[in-house]
Each structure stands twice: as C-alpha cells, then as structure tokens.
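Box 3.1 A note on notation
Throughout this textbook, protein chains are presented in two layers. The first layer is the amino acid sequence; the second is a token string describing backbone geometry. Keep the layers aligned when reading.
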Amino acid sequence: MAELPHTALTPAELDLGVVLLDLARDWARWVHRRVESFDIEDERTVRRRVSVDFTLPPAHPHTEVTPLGEPRHVVPLGLMRKRPLRRFDLRDEQDASLPLLTLEQNSRAAAAMLIAMCEAYAHGAGLPPLPDELAEDIWRLPRLPPGEAQAVWQRLGQARGEGDAARSWRASVASNDELMALAHDLANSFLLLVPLSVHPGERRILKFAYEEQVTRPRRPAPALTWSRAREGVGALRGGSERESRRREEARAAGMGLLAIEAVTRGTGDGVRPEVGLRLRVQGARTADAARTDDAGQVLLSLPAGSYEVH
C-alpha cells in the first residue's frame, strides 16, 4: 500500500494542516484586499499580477523560528490551478524575492489539511479512526495531475468492496459538502504557500506575478452588445457606493477565478487578437457584486492591453 498520511506526516505538519484549514475556511477574516491585473502580451500569452493585503490573526501559531529568533509562518496566498508556473515571481514590500514551499512540502501540507478536516468531522460524527483506504486516497489527491486526481475525488464517497469502517467513512464523506469541496479544490488546484517571517497582527502586502499560456477556442465567442458589455465593465470598475461596498466584501471573500481565453477576430490585414474574460465567483455576495448570470459567469470581449480586476 502507498505511503499514508497517518505515518508519513510529522506532528508539526499535522499542526500546520489545522492552521491552514482555519485560514482557508475564512479568507475574509484576515485578507483585506486582493487585486489582480493582467497584461495581454500577445494572443497566447497573459502576464498576471496579483497583490494580497492581509493580516494574520493574532492567535495564529507559528510553525518554526528563524535563526534570528523571528517567528516564521506558512501563509496561503490563494488557489492556483495545477500547472507549471512560468516566470513566477513573488516579492514583499521592499521588493525582496520570497520563496515558495517545494512541491513535496506543498503536497504534504494539502494532505494535512484534508486530514485535519476529516479528524474534526469524525470527532463530531462519532466515526471510527480514518481507514487506510481513504487515507491513501487523501495522500494521493494533491499529488496527482488534475485528471487523475479528479478520478480519485469522484471515488471518495464510493465504497469499493471495503470493510465496514471504510464504507461508513465514504458514505459520510459523500454527504459532507465542505469536505468534498476542499478535496475537489485540492484535486484541481494547489494552495500558493509562502514561508514568511511575520508576526501575527502585522499587516503585510505581498505581490506575485506569473505567465499563463491561453488556448484559442475553436470558434470565436459571440460579440456582446455594448449595453451588456458596459454593464459587465461597470460591475468590475464602477457603480454606486452600495455596490462598491459589496465589491469590497466580495474581494475579501476571496476565491473567485478569472479565466482568460484568446480569440482572433477579422481576416487578412484586419486580424486582431482579443480575449474572452470569464469571472467565475463563489458565494452569493461575490456573485451579486459582479452581477453574474445564473451560472455565476460574466463574459466580456476585450482588446489586447492591461486590465485590473478588483
């Protein structure tokens, strides 16, 4: 049987899983503002730039102490889709370069988060200890590429001729929306984790940037009417004081996903690159602030250039 988080994770890593789970459950509690801008360099390349303004909660425990005696915390900056990071750069307020956790460290931290949620759930539901079969799935989930990880996620709630404990656990997991949502996120994405010398209660602003290759859809997206495009841009840029306040709440709530697709319009000398911008959001407040449709999406057609989404 593959390595299991019960024995592979150290007590310090299991404690880190509890801390990260607490932060990821309530981004609004400690993230004040998140701003994303992007430069469309050509019809296939987008350079994304993100700033995260946050204050770690005062009770946030540190994970280690630096040689200078400063507390070092592992801070999640957001969810990133599982793919190689091209030209990635992370900077602090003094423009000093910052490291990320390694892929192995990140995978172990993600498994520890899932274990922490399972243990909290088991304590409240009176379940037996986590069975090895489910623990193995949890261990593999953050390590596998998205397609394989998605297949593991789909099997989390399906008993496969296993013992009573495993069947009981899988039935309970399938009915736990929060646990399944976290597992789904970690199957398709990874947390951007930075080890940072920072004191709880200290406000920090970190900035990171990376390059993304966008794929061209087979058929161009239909052009929007100006009235609809204006409504969408207004939802992102302007609006009443009440709308601005709702957007501020939505920013703090955190975990929307900005997806960009390239498209070429025109023929001959009139060919010009454009991109389709889809803002997918989570939570009623965010959807309301962005004026999305029932599917939680707004679609804009924008010319090449630089944009900022708050």
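The chain has two domains: 1-32+55-213, 214-309. Residues 79 and 191 are 5 Å apart (CA to CA).
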